[in-house]
Amino acid sequence: MQKFRMIEIGYDEFRDACEVLPPAIMLHDGFLLGEPYSDGPCSILNRQDTVWWAYFGPGHEGAQHFKADTPLTKTEFREAIRLLRAGQGGTFAGREEADRDRRLNQNGHQQGDAT
To answer: Are 81 and 30 in contact (CB under 8 A)?
Structure first.
């Protein structure tokens, strides 16, 4: 897999990137921005493939969020997520809990008093 650095970004930048277009891939640990960047070499498949900007993090305020410093193919992104879940990457790796704000109920609605 090609090497890349994870640049820490704020929650607002992460959320804005996620909301600009429907993601190309959306996982609990990150997503690929919904518009392809260009074509580039895939270090796993050893061929040219479409590359996308990759974002990593649980998607809730107070957590750490990152952006790859270089676009990744879908295959490279999935491998990066696999490595993160195995504990070989960022500080949020290995979490299996739902990636949502704890104030939200199972349906994604804000908890609290009804008005």
So the answer is: yes
Amino acid identity, residue 23? P
C-alpha 52/C-alpha 12 separation (Å) is 20
**80, 84, 87, 92 alpha-carbon torsion, rounded to 10°:** 160
- Write the single-letter amino acid at 41: P
The type of residue at 88 is: Q
Q: How confident is the model at residue 11 (pLDDT cuts 50, 70, 90)?
A: very high
pTM for the whole thing? 0.74
Q: What is the 3-state secondary structure (H, E, C) of the chain?
A: CCCCCEEEECHHHHHHHHHHCCCCEEECCEEECCCCCEEEEECCCCEEEEEECEEECCCCCCCCEEEECCCECHHHHHHHHHHHHCCCCCCCCCCCCCCCCCCECCCCCECCCCC
pLDDT digits (tens, 9 = 90+) for 43-86: 999 999 999 999 999 999 999 999 999 999 999 999 999 998 88
pLDDT of residue 112: 42
